[in-house]
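Retro notes - structure team

What went well: the batch runner handled both jobs without manual restarts.
What didn't: labels got mixed up in the shared folder, which is why I'm recording both outputs here explicitly, each with its sequence directly above its tokens.

Job 1
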Amino acid sequence: REPTPDEAAAMAETVERLLAGLDEHERPVVELTLEGYSTEEISRHLGRAERTVRRLRERVRKRLEGEMTGE
């Protein structure tokens, strides 16, 4: 189902808040992830090792989980 206008607005605010809190290394990885690129594609596009891309994704995921649980 499509999100309601209120749900879409809340999601957009969440994404903007997430992106604003990222550093210069994390932001392009998250942006490309949100656009649907694979780890391999992001690695090639940014000229970074796949391991680095995976680690950055994991670091951001853990930070988000901490925010969601209030840690």
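Job 2
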Amino acid sequence: ASDVYKRQGEIYKLSLSFCSRIELTLVDVDLKNGVSFPFIDEKKWEKKMVQNVEGNESYPSHSFWVYKRKD
């Protein structure tokens, strides 16, 4: 099963070269397994926080971000 996750992560990485905009949700949890989004080089992308949400007993803290590719 871990090989499947690794391949999904590679798909994200390969698709970045075709994107001009990324809408990303960051969730404040520590996962031992799963798919991570690839590193985003902030020299090539403009980053803006859209919303920050404090967690509670029902859901973890998370934030919404938009990245736009710089020209």
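One thing worth noting from job 2: Residues 10 and 48 are 25 Å apart (CA to CA).
We'll revisit the folder naming next retro.
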